[in-house]
Amino acid sequence: MTQPMDLAFLSASLTQGWYIMTADYESPAAQFAVGRLSGHATLDSIRVALTHGPSSHNLSTHPNYAMWGYSGGALAVSWAAALQPSYAPELAISGAAVGGLIPNLTSVIETINMGPFSSAAFVIFIGLAKAYPPFATWLEFALKTYLKEVFFRRERELCPR
Predict the structure, then answer these.
(1) How many domains does the chain have?
(2) Is 82 exposed, middle or buried (0-12, 13-18, 19+ CB in 10 A)?
(3) Biggest alpha carbon–alpha carbon distance for the chain
């Protein structure tokens, strides 16, 4: 989701004459924190922009392009950079910039547990459960009985399939 802070950076980029493309790297199923999916979606969106940009937006047929992401976007960009040589070797990406990177989901969850940002773990767990059915099965088993109903009800409300 684009935040007001992001708009300042996007506006500055547009005033430089840059084209901007943003990807729904979490998929319609809201699979946040699923690195491989995020990386593939980011690279696929670059492919689409390069395929259709020259004819529909007067984009150069051989533009210089880079990836940029912060926080959840950094996760997508870092996975895209790691996967690019094998998944999209035809893409000549000039560079990648990331900030606020989530380097290790386990470490993040342990750090935020019981604190003011602990609700972020919910989003991570839901994203992983939607992408990996064995994790969803484990999660259902691991949650305390009184939390299961609340957890899965919120999941259905916030992230419909």
Answers:
(1) 2
(2) middle
(3) 57
Whether 110 and 134 share a structural domain: yes
**Residue 152 CB-density burial (10 A; 0-12 exposed, 13-18 middle, 19+ buried):** middle
Give the tens place of pLDDT for each residue, 127-143: 888 889 999 899 888 88
Asked if residue 79 and residue 30 are part of one domain, the reply reads yes
Q: Is this structure's pTM higher than 0.70?
A: yes
> Which uninterrupted H or E stretch holds 125?
helix 119-131
What CA–CA distance (Å, rounded) separates 81 from 75? 10
Residues 135 and 80 in one domain: no
Domain that holds residue 81: 4-99
